[in-house]
Amino acid sequence: MTQYETVIGLEVHLELKTDSKIFCSSSTSFGGKPNTHVCPVCLGLPGVLPVVNKKVVEDAILVSLALNCRIAGFSKFDRKNYYYPDMPKNYQISQYDLPIALNGHLEIELGGELKKIGITRLHMEEDTGKLLHQGTITTTPFSLVDYNRAGVPLLEIVSEPDLRSPEEARIYLEKLKSIIQYTGVSDCRMEEGSLRCDANVSVRQFGKEEFGTKTEIKNMNSFRSLQKALTYEASRQIDVLEEGGRIVQETRTWDEGQGITLPMRSKEEAHDYRYFPEPDLVPMIIEREWVESIRNRLPELPDARRERYVRDYSLPVYDAGVLTSTKEMADYFEACLNAYSSPKTVGNWIMGDLSRLLNANNLEINECPVSPVNLASLLKTLDEGTISGKIAKVVFEDMFATGKDAGTIIKEKGLIQISDEGSLSAIVEEVIAGNPKSVSDYRSGKDKALGFLVGQVMKATKGKANPELVNKLFKEKILN
């Protein structure tokens, strides 16, 4: 592996969340009974004519600007001809030599260093339908075709072969997803196919300029699968070369269960698709004024938002990066700050307890049962000394499970912090009497012994004792 360099380029397919399809008015809603979100246009029936959805073009321009692309003044659609059962017309309307955007880039960070990854092109096209395979080896196999997805608008974003490791490829895809989510043009739900990726990978010996023969791995729909598939495929190619073989240019699929890539078919070249200009759609002239009006709609993107958090909130770079990794998390964070003024404290709770519970319940932050206002209320209650830090975590778990606010849970469960010095003094004296060795250890300078003693009081009070007051009482009674 140390003698070879991996070369990777990604082709990312992004479904837009427009209400209607790219060339007709059929719904783009995910799911639904098979073949109910269809019409004569997306079914490819004879005599129908496509009409371009203006919102698709606007979204394509918006994403292109977010990726620093040059918007073409003249662009057209083409027919990409190939037969597949889920292509009702036996061709796909796509873009070939005159796409809507070219020559962009985004920056990724790896090991504390920034690297610019080039974006060759961004173009618009229609999605295909979906095949549902039925039957087993012992029964008659057959396939069903659902055309609900046929004609859903897609953007294809093609990177330069600038990625040099599977880890870089994963980071690039994560960054690309984050930028797209900030623009709001797609939900990027990889599990539903809204964002999927084809990976081109080759290897070459270090020092060589010429690229090796590439293979394509189709339809990666998770970051983990992408990195694992690329790691395996690069290793496989190196093994072939070391054994004196040659790499065959082909399309392969990733088998998650076996952890290997498998051949699907020989890799097509552009001429195999017999591209020609789509005769039913006129070319598009993209006016500069229109582009600039769309540029004005660009939101604050993740890099700019991260820099603002570091500058305005004095957050560590790492914290700011995590909190801005998705627009939803950044929005949640700022909504909390509208009601509670400590950015670091809010960030710690979001990155810690909140993220832990979201992951455990497979939820996104916009599905969180604890509203930003309720989290802020809990933190205020903690600052006021009404509850201890330990109890705050218990209350938060209840808030997440029930959706109730902190005050209600604290009242229902009697969790108000004990801050009465007289009550705590008696418990402290009992702990001192029952733990003479720990008392002796603390007197001799072993600070950990004090932590043990405080823990005994917290245990006796079920976590409700004021820890600062307990510490003060122990020091007074043991050292004075």
Question: What are the defining features of this structure?
Answer:
480 residues, 3 domains, alpha+beta, Arc Repressor Mutant, subunit A, 3-stranded antiparallel sheet, 15 helices
Quickly count the domains: 3
Mean pLDDT: 90
> Which structural class best describes the helix and strand composition?
alpha+beta
Report the oligomer. Answer: single chain
What characteristic shape results from the CA principal axes? elongated
Total strands: 16
Compute the number of helices: 15
Q: Low-confidence spans: pLDDT under 50, at least 5 residues? A: none
Task: Profile the largest sheet.
Answer: 9 strands, mixed
Q: State the helical fraction.
A: 25-40%
% residues in beta strands: 15-25%
Termini Cα gap? 66 Å
Strand order of the largest sheet: 2-6-7-10-1-11-12-13-14
Radius of gyration: 29 Å
Model description:
- The chain is α+β, with helices and mostly antiparallel strands and 480 residues long.
- It folds into 3 domains: 4-292, no CATH class; 302-413, no CATH class; 421-479, Orthogonal Bundle (Arc Repressor Mutant, subunit A).
- 39% of the residues lie in helices and 21% in strands.
- The protein contains 15 helices and 16 strands.
- The chain has helices at residues 54-66, 166-183, 223-242, 288-295, 302-313, 317-323, 327-337, 343-360, 372-383, 389-402, 406-413, 421-434, 436-443, 448-460, 467-479, and strands spanning 4-15, 70-71, 74-75, 78-81, 91-94, 101-110, 113-126, 130-134, 142-146, 153-159, 195-205, 215-220, 250-255, 260-266, 276-277, 284-285.
- The strands form 4 sheets. Strands 2-6-7-10-1-11-12-13-14 form a 9-stranded mixed sheet.
- A hairpin with a 4-residue loop joins strand 13 (250-255) and strand 14 (260-266).
- It starts with a strand and ends with a helix.
